[in-house]
């Protein structure tokens, strides 16, 4: 359970670091780019994945290439969501993306729809609507970003999960697929950061470099601890999956409300409760 707690903590700390980016005068685009340099290096150093499966016929390079583009783009969307909508809504949107991967499981992977899963899907959709809902007065103050970016995070992480299932179905070991994804995402992330600079963004700084390396270390630690949790509890994958999602939503809510004074209206609070119930139904 220590590994699971570590994974939950690192996942929330990623959002905290993105939340603090403006306060620390760091550029999120540069942080995301350096993050993949650190995460890729740690993957090679710690996991030492065999890369031979990537050269075999049938290797899912199309899905890996799509992930290489989508990962940095959604990381930037997560940064924007944390800034405009807060940690609580962003974490809920990210974790409720399992609704899309579950729908893909019904349509693409032949999973059967049961009453429990159907109830979880319905509660999840209601939770998502409640979490991004703002009263008219609050919506004008917060702008469209308060609901657009969480929805982008929801859709993006759902697409990533579907692509990861495609990669796993091709038989590529998780370490090799991570190494490939980080390597492909690295030039894309730097291209996006350079484009932001050309358009008048912040210059590349040592401060953003340091923050990005820390972000990459947390990103890798989150993945590594999550994998170790599955290895420690091989007969209880649903427990690990549910614990991760429920834990991140609960801890993210505590950090967002207590540390950053994020405000949740009654509808948002109901959405948080529905999200916890939905994740429980969908993962146990």
TrEMBL record:
Which regions span the lipid bilayer?
59-80, 92-110, 116-133, 145-164, 176-196, 208-227, 239-260, 267-283
What's the superkingdom here?
A: Bacteria
Keywords, ordered alphabetically: Membrane, Transmembrane, Transmembrane helix
Task: Give the protein name, as stated in the record.
Answer: EamA-like transporter family protein
Phylogenetic placement of the source organism: Bacteria, Pseudomonadati, Pseudomonadota, Gammaproteobacteria, Lysobacterales
